[in-house]
């Protein structure tokens, strides 16, 4: 049986971003989250079609997430 846990953990990581601090931060938050969702959707569609390499696709998603860190001020974060 295929272990989907690594993929589910990567999906949770992709969708878990801190809330933005300001309206301006919200714009950047939404842009990054949108890109993360796009990559997540591509991976999920691929795995549903062919679940042979779940761990490989989880790794691929994590690599894409590394390129899309939360690069904005989060709520509760002190101003710079």
In short:
The chain has 80 residues and is an all-alpha fold.
Hey, roughly how much beta strand do the residues contain? under 5%
Low-confidence stretches: none
Largest sheet: none
Into which percent range does the helicity of residues fall?
55-70%
The coarse overall form would be: elongated
Structural class: mainly alpha
User: Average pLDDT value?
Assistant: 94
Encode the helix/strand succession as letters: HHH
Number of strands: 0
Based on the model shown, name its key terms.
single chain; 80 residues; mainly alpha
Plain-language structure description:
The protein is mainly α. 64% of the residues lie in helices and 0% in strands. The chain is built from three helices and no strands. Helix 2 (23-49) runs antiparallel to helix 3 (54-66). The termini are far apart. The model has no long low-confidence stretch (mean pLDDT 94).
Architecture blueprint of SSEs:
Layout (H helix, E strand, L loop, with lengths): L4 H11 L7 H27 L4 H13 L14
Helix pairs in contact: 1-3, 2-3
